[in-house]
C-alpha cells in the first residue's frame, strides 16, 4: 500500500494539469531509512514533450539523483500522467521501470474535471496495483502496528 500526504498528491495532479496535453513526470523523494515515506516533491521535465510518452531529461535526472544521494533520500514515488488513456503502465512504462522499491504512480488527466490516481509496483516486468491511502500527515497513517502506546502499570 502507498500511504501519501494529500499535499503531495495535489502537487502531482497540479503538475499533470499544467503539462496537459503532454505527459508530466517527476519523483517524490523520501528518507533512505526504510520508512517508505515520500516527503519532497520533485517535478521534472518530460524530455519527450509528448502526450503519449515521457522520459526524464538525463542531465536533470543526474542532478536530482545526486541531490537525493547527498540528502540520504531515495525515489519513493516515480510519477507520470496519462493524458488520454487509462492510468495503467504501458509496455514502455514497464520496460523503463528501474526502481524496484518505488511506487509507480500514474495520474489520469483525460477528464478535465476529475483526475484518477493509481499506484503500482513494477518489479522485473511484473505489474501489481496497490491501494493508495491519502493522509493529511504521516503521524496517524496506518502503519500495520498498534498506534496506541502501551502504558504498563496503568
Any descriptors?
154 residues; alpha/beta; two-stranded parallel ribbon; 3 helices; globular
Quick description:
It comes from Actinomycetospora rhizophila. The protein has 154 residues and is an alpha/beta fold. Helix content is 21%, strand content 32%.
Structural summary, described in words:
Residues 2-126 form the MPN domain. The chain is 21% helix and 32% strand. It is built from 3 helices and 8 strands; from the N terminus they run βαββαβαββββ. The protein has helices at residues 6-19, 58-70, 91-96, and strands at 2-5, 25-31, 40-44, 73-82, 103-108, 116-123, 126-130, 132-135. Strands 3-2-4-5-6-7 form a 6-stranded mixed beta sheet. The radius of gyration is 16 Å and the shape is globular.
Tell me the major beta sheet. 6 strands, mixed
Radius of gyration in whole Å, from Cα?
16 Å
Order of helices and strands: EHEEHEHEEEE
The overall pLDDT, averaged over residues, is 92
Low-confidence stretches: 144-154
Give the helix/strand layout.
Layout: E1 2-5, H1 6-19, E2 25-31, E3 40-44, H2 58-70, E4 73-82, H3 91-96, E5 103-108, E6 116-123, E7 126-130, E8 132-135
Keywords: Hydrolase, Metal-binding, Metalloprotease, Protease, Zinc
Domain MPN: 2-126
Protein name: Mov34/MPN/PAD-1 family protein
Amino acid at each position: 500500500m502507498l500511504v501519501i500526504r494529500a499535499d503531495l498528491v495535489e502537487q502531482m495532479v497540479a503538475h499533470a494539469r499544467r503539462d496537459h496535453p503532454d505527459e508530466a513526470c517527476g519523483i517524490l523523494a523520501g528518507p533512505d531509512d526504510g520508512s517508505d515515506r515520500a516527503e519532497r516533491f520533485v517535478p521534472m521535465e518530460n524530455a519527450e514533450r509528448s502526450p503519449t510518452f515521457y522520459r526524464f531529461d538525463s542531465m536533470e535526472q543526474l542532478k536530482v539523483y545526486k541531490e537525493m544521494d547527498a540528502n540520504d533520500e531515495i525515489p519513493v514515488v516515480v510519477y507520470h500522467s496519462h493524458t488520454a488513456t487509462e492510468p495503467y503502465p504501458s509496455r514502455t512504462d514497464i520496460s523503463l521501470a528501474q526502481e524496484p522499491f518505488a511506487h509507480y504512480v500514474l495520474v489520469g488527466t483525460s477528464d478535465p474535471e476529475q483526475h484518477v490516481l493509481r499506484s503500482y509496483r513494477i518489479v522485473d516486468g511484473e505489474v501489481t496495483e496497490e491501494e493508495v491511502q491519502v493522509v493529511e500527515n504521516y503521524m496517524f497513517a496506518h502503519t500495520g502496528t498498534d498506534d496506541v502506546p502501551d502504558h504498563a502499570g496503568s
